[in-house]
Write a structure and sequence with these properties.
Layout: H1 2-28, E1 34-39, E2 43-45, E3 49-56, E4 64-69, E5 74-75, E6 79-82, E7 88-95, E8 102-110, E9 113-122, E10 127-128, E11 133-137, E12 141-143, E13 148-154, E14 157-158, E15 162-168, E16 178-181, E17 187-192, E18 202-210, E19 213-222, E20 225-229, E21 242-245, E22 254-260, E23 265-266, E24 270-273, E25 279-281, E26 285-286, E27 293-301, E28 304-312, E29 322-326, E30 333-334, E31 340-346, E32 355-360, E33 366-368, E34 372-375, E35 381-388, E36 395-403, E37 406-415, E38 418-422, E39 427-429, E40 434-440, E41 448-454, E42 459-460, E43 464-467, E44 473-480, E45 487-489, E46 491-495, E47 498-501, E48 505-508
Parallel strand pairs: 2-9, 10-14, 12-19, 30-37, 39-48
Antiparallel strand pairs: 1-3, 3-7, 4-6, 4-8, 5-7, 8-9, 11-13, 13-17, 15-16, 15-18, 18-19, 20-21, 21-25, 22-24, 22-27, 23-26, 27-28, 29-31, 31-35, 32-34, 32-36, 33-35, 36-37, 38-40, 40-44, 41-43, 41-46, 42-44, 45-48, 46-47
Amino acid sequence: MKRSALAALALAAGLLVVPIQAAEAGTASCHPALSSLTLSAASVPGGASVKATVRLTCAAPAAVRVQVKGFKGVTAPTVIEVAKRHSSATATIRTGVTRATRHGDIEAMLGRARRSDRLTVTRTPRACKTPKLTSVSAPALTYVGNPVRLAIGLSCAPTATIRLSLASNNAELPVPARIAVGRYYDYAAVALAPKADEAGQYRATVTVRYGGKAISRAITVDPGLSVFAIPPCSEPDCVAPDVLFTGNIPAGGYTVHLSSNNSAIAVPATQTFQAGSLGGGFIVRVSPVTKNTTVTLSATFGGRTLHTSTTLLPPWTNKDSLTLSAEAGSGPIYGQEFSLEYLALLSNPAPPGGETVTFSSPSSSVEISSPTWDISPGDDDAYVDINTADVTSPVHTDLVATVDGVTATLPLVIEPGLDSFTDVPATVTGGDPFSATLNLAGPVDANTTVALQSTDGVVSVPVTVIVPAGQSSVNFMATTVPVTADDQVTIYAYLGNGNINSATVTVTP
């Protein structure tokens, strides 16, 4: 018992050590460099503080000391230490009381790397014990997706932190219940995020309260840009962009500004969408390219811009590729199947003159419905249907597609298909089981699954049966339920897109 317990403890210890060793090995391979320095605010009033965060390119194997430098009127730590196995650290930058606005850079240094962020220190406001709420401002109109800046003004900066109450009369424009205003600040800025309303435009009133005073501002929120995309198309170089909004467009409609970063796709300068709609598409002009070309389109509305990209392909030549595949996926096909669809696909769109695909097979067991197919300019695919003969043994052959001397070959295996049901009783007493045999036209290469079904619930058959490799038939059992009158039932078998049915079985009382 003791020996087993010690072994278990040793194993557990090993399991704990391995990940740590692996992590340390990964960390040891890191050679951290200074990636960035960012400040929590770009501007603060004199006397207030701001957070500075330094980031490294990877987690350090040992503590890293990043040198920091401020400017006049700002007190920064000389070093920000990034702890072992960490990639960032934060420190406080303090500013002094000032009568004039100051601008400067907070700079971080590690080796030869220098990173900085700009800081503005504004005039220190007058302080008092009981500031008053003096102003609240917000845009009268905004759009979903655009942040709303609620600016709140006080008569003076509080000598101790105070809390203001906020409320909105519309849940689609939520506000925090309270915000804190600290020392040195005679203002507050609150970022609000309007929600989408499918109905479209809505209005909300935001109220700020402090010291018995309340100031309200009404804001109208219109639908904003929601989606700008190029939906998938059945043809290459097919570009049909859609612009959609977060709700129904209000009266007057919307005009969206459009641009393209490449003349290969020319877009209208603007597109107008009708009131009451959610947006829609617009027409572009696509020009041929000589190489793969990625084009980015931009849609701008209400101060917000969305982008979407697509890659245009040059016309296909006989230096490009051709592939051939089965629409139903890989796997065997069976004798006496009809209208099996195959796809020849060009790697690039057909040139201005189009292309012609020729389909063929060396086997007479494959009947090709249309040996040639024209691919229209700009399109990239051709389809062919084949029928299979009633084979009595597996046939291994190919389907071949040829375009301008370029050939694609797809191996085909045609297994014997369905032939008949035998040993099916003409009558059976309800409640008694019976056996039957399903026959294929010949032995198969691999285990072959055949689906079974009866015409009603009086006779139950297996959902599937398997004809073993090398065999051409399989026996199965069926069950019946008691009946009060004769009931006639037929059994069906399905393989590939073919099916057969048995002779009628009469189930008697």
